[in-house]
Structure formats: structure tokens, C-alpha cells
Amino acid sequence: MDNRSAYLEEFKIFRNDTLIKTVKPKHHSEQIIKDLKFGKYEIEYLTQFKKTERKKLELTEKKTYEIDLCIDYINYELESYKPFIDRIKNGESYSIEINSSGCFHRSEEKITISRNANKYYIRFAETEKLLKDEDIDAIRCFEIELNYMESWGCTSVDDYVLKYKNNLVKISDGSCSWNGGGYLSAIKK
């Protein structure tokens, strides 16, 4: 497990589909599990997106095995949510409003994404920029992940409001482990 901004509350170890152990890491980034017999194992854990993931591992010899559990992983291709960026037609746009507040900060930002002549543009402040394919992919990832981020527990909270026609998505992220605005900030550079 390599995790600097969020932590894994627990993971389960299965052998032949039977639960043999539940491990609660307590904020430790590495866990050493000893005395496992040779065989096929699965490790099950919950990502920060509240999705259950499973990793397979086969122990065939006496040695140290390493396995990374990515709690910030999501399989975008399996998602049923269709991002607004994939819904807008030529001549249309949608907006993303981000309000961030915490003990020592407060910020507001509005971004507009539009499509004209089958090209996508982002507008923020007084600047408009043509989006590259990797920017469009980053926006898709942002929108899909955003749908799983309704959470609390941090003194900083980011409120997101996405508006497209009569569709409205409102999400408050108080996880302190996801930086959705980071996707958009990287695009604006």
C-alpha cells in the first residue's frame, strides 16, 4: 500500500474463497503478513470511491511477496455514469463551480466547458483554451470520480456544482483525500 493522502481502514485476506484474516492497518502504509501457506489468495478492500476491489496473489515458494493496494483506483470503462463532457453537442456548454473553504481559506471558481465545431474549450476567469485529448480524458475522470466523493471528516470542504441544461450535480467533498480541483488546475496551465 502506498498512500500518502488517504488510508485503508481494513482489508480482508481470502484463501479458496474463505475469509482467513481481516487486517486493520491503522494508518501504516506497509503491512507484513506472516505464516501464510502456499496457495491462491485474494485480498479485498474498499477504495476511497467506496468500490470493492480484489487483488489475486499466488504463493508458490518461500519468499517475500509485495502487493500494492491502490485505494484511489477506479475502472472508468465499467462506469455507467456518462460525463457531461460526453453529453454536450456542438454549440452547447456546461459549467463547473468549485467553492472551497476551510479554517484558513475560502475560494470560488467557475469553469465553463463548451463544444464548437467538434472541438472542446475550457473557459475560466478571462481565459479560453482549446482542450487536448488528454485534457478531455482528465475531465471525464474528474466527473466520474466526483460522483463517489460525497464525504465528510475534514475541516476543508470542496463543494462542486455541475450544470448542464436541466441536469444538476451537487457534491460536497470533505474527505481531504481527493483533489478534484487538481484535475482542472492542471488543464488550465
Automatic annotation (TrEMBL):
It comes from the Bacteria. This is CYTH domain-containing protein. It comes from Psychroserpens algicola.
